């Protein structure tokens, strides 16, 4: 399965840190009947993710909401504990961005978006992409080449909707 | 399965250095040295953060006074997450080495991996502390449950060596 405009994302269980601990979240339940932004990145506390990608969505979160986006979700191959700490450290949580963990990497692999860089200690992580999804159907898809953060930023996606 | 008297397998870990990532062989770390290794289920998880790590931050100096050359915290996380956890938890300041078993190669090799998919924890390490002398495990404190930190803390190790 690949990501394409007009297509859908496969159903998967992602994990989110709730008030009382980790919670399993159905991706399709998050998408149904809503207009949302989903963006993905290699991992919590990695360089460009913390310094470029996340900040671009923190800056644009309000503008997305003004354009009718109900939720902005960030998917990465991490566990919910690391994601909670990261969301608090970057300001993403305060900006209302939801972190969802593809803990076993199966969703990312299924989309063919995974990469492995053993020398960086990153195994089965996600390349960068940003999507607008309306009632489950992908209406915008900005997929970056591995290793770069250009068209999957908040500003680039915002300019398209 | 990890046990006293066992010679630890050699595994190469990616370690975050001042100039970026480098590879470190466990054999090189352990050879002709006394090393305490404590393993935890994950960075930023409640018991690890609130109990296990602080117990070694408190006892690091005393362990060194008793001839321990290095104190290592090992977890199945990537080096990026481990670096930040080390800074936030006080471990870096206490001179504790953060070792990222990113692909769980070491944890699996010693039979210490466990799964908790509901928490997004896959191939994580059970909680234990061990004294390793010239590569051989001479003391092992393995917790019966991952959620408790009774016998694997720094004080228990300190009392025994």
Describe this structure in words.
The complex is a heterodimer of chains A (161) and B (161). Chain A has 161 residues and is an alpha/beta fold. Chain A is 29% helix and 31% strand. Chain A is built from five helices and nine strands. In chain A, strands 5-4-3-8-9 form a five-stranded mixed β-sheet. A two-stranded antiparallel ribbon of chain A has the order 1-2. A two-stranded antiparallel sheet of chain A has the order 6-7. In chain A, strand 6 (114-117) and strand 7 form a beta hairpin. The mean pLDDT of chain A is 95. Chain B has helices spanning 26-30, 46-65, 79-89, 105-109, 154-160; strands at residues 12-17, 20-25, 34-40, 70-75, 97-100, 113-116, 121-125, 128-133, 136-142. In chain B, helix 3 (79-89) links the parallel strand 4 and strand 5. The relative contact order of chain B is 0.23. The model of chain B has no long low-confidence stretch (mean pLDDT 94). Chain A binds chain B through residues 15, 21-22, 24, 43-47, 78-82, 84-86, 89, 101, 103-104, 118-123, and chain B through 13-14, 21, 23, 42-45, 77-81, 83-85, 88, 100, 102-103, 117-122.
Nutshell version of this structure?
The complex is a heterodimer of chains A (161) and B (161). With 161 residues, chain A is an alpha/beta fold. Chain A has helices at residues 27-31, 47-66, 80-90, 106-110, 154-158, and strands at residues 13-18, 21-26, 35-40, 71-76, 98-101, 114-117, 122-126, 129-134, 137-143.
Q: How far apart are the termini of chain B?
A: 23 Å
Query: Strand fraction band of chain A?
Result: 25-35%
Task: Look at the helices and sheets of chain A and give the structural class.
Answer: alpha/beta
Order of helices and strands of chain A: EEHEHEHEHEEEEH
Question: What's the end-to-end separation of chain A, in Å?
Answer: 25 Å
Q: How are the strands ordered across the major sheet of chain A?
A: 5-4-3-8-9
Overall mean pLDDT of chain B:
94
Contiguous runs where pLDDT drops below 50 for at least 5 residues of chain B: none
Strands of the widest sheet of chain B, in order across it, are 5-4-3-8-9
Q: State the largest interface.
A: A-B, 27 and 26 residues
- What's the pLDDT, averaged over the residues of chain A? 95
Largest sheet: number of strands, sense, barrel closure of chain B: 5 strands, mixed
Query: What does the radius of gyration of chain B come to?
Result: 14 Å
Estimated share of beta-strand residues of chain B = 25-35%
Class from helix and strand fractions of chain B: alpha/beta
| Unreliable residue stretches of chain A | none
Roughly how many Å is the radius of gyration of chain A? 14 Å
Q: How would you describe the shape of chain B?
A: globular
């Amino acid at each position: 399965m690949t990501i394409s405009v007009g297509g859908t994302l496969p159903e998967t269980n992602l994990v989110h840190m709730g008030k009382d601990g980790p919670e399993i979240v159905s991706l399709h339940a998050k998408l149904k009947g809503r207009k949302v932004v989903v963006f993905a990145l290699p991992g919590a506390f990695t360089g460009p993710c913390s310094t470029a990608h996340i900040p671009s969505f923190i800056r644009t979160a309000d503008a997305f909401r003004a354009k009718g986006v109900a939720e902005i979700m960030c998917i990465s191959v991490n566990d919910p504990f690391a994601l909670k700490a990261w969301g608090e450290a970057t300001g993403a949580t305060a900006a209302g961005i939801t972190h969802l963990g593809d803990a076993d990497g199966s969703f990312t692999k299924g989309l063919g978006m995974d990469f492995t860089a053993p020398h960086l200690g990153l195994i089965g992580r996600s390349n960068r992409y940003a999507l607008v999804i309306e009632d489950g159907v992908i209406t915008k898809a900005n997929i970056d080449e591995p290793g770069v953060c250009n068209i999957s930023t908040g500003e680039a996606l915002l300019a398209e909707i | 399965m990890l046990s006293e008297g066992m010679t630890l397998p050699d595994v190469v870990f990616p370690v975050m250095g001042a100039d970026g990532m480098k590879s470190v062989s466990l054999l090189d770390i352990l050879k002709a040295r006394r090393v305490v290794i404590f393993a935890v289920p994950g960075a930023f998880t409640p018991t690890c953060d609130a109990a296990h790590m602080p117990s070694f931050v408190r006892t690091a100096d005393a362990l060194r006074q008793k001839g321990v050359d290095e104190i290592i915290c090992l977890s199945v996380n990537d080096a990026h997450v481990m670096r930040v956890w080390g800074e936030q938890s006080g471990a870096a300041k206490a001179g504790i080495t953060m070792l990222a078993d990113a692909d769980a190669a070491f944890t699996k090799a010693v039979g210490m991996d466990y799964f908790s998919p509901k928490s997004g924890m896959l191939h994580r390490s059970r909680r234990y502390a061990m004294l390793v002398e010239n590569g051989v495990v001479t003391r092992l404190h393995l917790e019966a449950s991952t959620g408790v930190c009774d016998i694997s803390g720094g004080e228990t190790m300190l009392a025994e060596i």
